[in-house]
Structures
1.
Amino acid sequence: MFMNIKLIGHGDITSKDFYTSVLIDHILIGMPPGTLKELKKEDIKTEDIRIIIVTHLLGESYFDLPMFLYHEYLRKRSEPLVIIGPKDLKKKVDKLIKMAFKERIIDDLKVSFLDAASIQNTNVTHDLYFSFVNLKHKYIKNCYGLIIQNDQTSLGYIGETQACPGIPYLLKAVKHCIITVGDDDLSRINLMEFKDLASKFNINYVPVGYPDAMSKKINEVKNAKLIKSGEQFYI
């Protein structure tokens, strides 16, 4: 079975473009600020999203999750929802909801929070197996990359992270990977590090959100393909 991938945004905090988030079938990776509005713009039904993955506990990764959950609470969501991320994610989201809306709503929804650290080659859906890989991003204790596999293919996801041993470990395990590349930002893989990785592994997809000069350099790297917000493809 093929995976249907759609890029929802391709920018970061310094970009005029919406933050990067990735929809894989019914799985959403990343819930940065503005995600709910972006999903509505793309005519993606929130009830079709069954799994949300948060890779690290910085605002760029999960600050729209309270908005999404409150939206689902207002529309009386009946579909189950699994949220996977660092172990303190539920506590932080619950606090943000209480601050924003003066209510505690998580227990009224069919939401399950799972600790990413406990998921290794785990059958989270009927046909997909997930594994989380420890990565490094600034001072964050728990930062993860993701491996998704089915009977036909495998996909890696490497978001905001700097060079660390977990990256080659993850890349060895997958046929395709979506990876974020930085410029001179020490908290992200830089262009030289990316070129070195791409010469050794299959790194296929890089979100565009860069200045034109940087995008051109990335596009010249072997095994790399820039993808734009709204772009949809299958692997």
Note: The chain has a mean pLDDT of 91.
2.
Amino acid sequence: MGWDFAQGATKKSTVQEILSNQILDGYVSRVVAQKTVKNNLWVVWEIDYPAGKKRVLSLYMLAKFSGCGAWGYKAIDESMGPYESNCPLQFLELATDGVNTAFRERVKDAGKVTL
């Protein structure tokens, strides 16, 4: 997946846009927890699938694009094994589905961010 950005978007408006999305994978979702760490927005989503609810962890890498001065993001879910390791440790407990063991071990080893 590539980067998404909108002309004139600020970092704050980009985060608000991401968090206001109530549909993920075509199903209703809600934010369970979210935290911005530097230019990484970490979100635990609860998705209401027909077979039941699942909680997944997503990373939204935030960046300001110099060509147009607008902020944008790149969405990465846990299954993709993000290389970033500044995820709040508590989020690993909240997100119980789509677990990537190698990624979680990297986050625990880094132990950088706590709520």
Note: Helices lie at 11-20, 89-94, 101-110.
3.
Amino acid sequence: MSSEYYYLQQIISHESWHINQEGESPIDLSCRYCFPVDINKISTEFNHFWKHCIELRGIESNYSASTLVLFEQIRNQRDNSKVKNQIQQLLEILRYT
């Protein structure tokens, strides 16, 4: 199955859990309820990234605290071999509408 299908299934499953509260919550790092954003922890660099790389493309999306943490990890990463994987993870935890 495609990664987009898996992405949507993961979000649907997690959102359903929020509604029904049955069983163990599926992990969804893009969930703003589970990982709320503290606006005091948003760096200027993240704001620039969001404005110039995400919003500029007209993609309606939002982010969670997990996105901010991963963004900072990428900024501080000194091992270039790990950056590509981390950027992929970052894109996967954005919530697209």
Note: Residues 35 and 65 are 5 Å apart (CA to CA).
4.
Amino acid sequence: MPQLTAALEDRDGHARVAAAFALWLIEKKAEPSVSVLIAALKDKQHGSYAPDSAAEKLGEIGPAAQAAVPELVESLKIDNRGLRIATAGALWKITQKAGPAISVLIEELRGDHSLAESNTSYAFGILQAMGPHANKAFPMLAAKWRAEPEDGNSAWVRDELLKVLRAINPDAAKKLEAK
């Protein structure tokens, strides 16, 4: 425990995030973990993925990280696709409200990014977890599913999209498959 507590002050953002989350896992106390993760969200070190990781970990903490909601909402305004997706997921997991999360996920998936890219895959997982709460995303996801070729590397992407579509609206997904 003393080493983890000391690592909360480490110069490396990833070390701070890992230590904060490890403390959460061991103690199940929001503080000091949530405060350290909130501070990591603001990490402006160029090329650092610590803010993305901090958002993911806040989401894993769930409702106990409620204090992070205002800073997570601010993070949605940052022009960083990975951070925006991780933040949307965290907001969903903490609040269980689709609110801004669904809008951000739709916006980030509408782009020309590869559907096999890791951030896209993470967004798919969030939408799948949201289930019927992500119904607003169904038309866009269905269009992407129809547009993906049925062979090669795209087969995996189509399967992943179909899992998400089934989680959101099983009946509509069946109709889509039948066509």
Note: The chain has eleven helices and no strands.
